[in-house]
Amino acid sequence: MRKVLILAAAVAALATGACNTIAGAGKDVSAAGHAVTQTANDAKH
User: Splitting the chain (45 residues) into consecutive groups of 10 residues, what average pLDDT does each group show?
Assistant: First the structure.
């Protein structure tokens, strides 16, 4: 029973870390998209 609890805690920790990594990657992609949009708008004017 103890091994199951340890395994469940490890899986939960990895899942939480993966969610934070995906969220961070999404923010990076969004920031890059905003930069490209701003550059295109500046070039337009």
Answer: 86 75 81 89 85
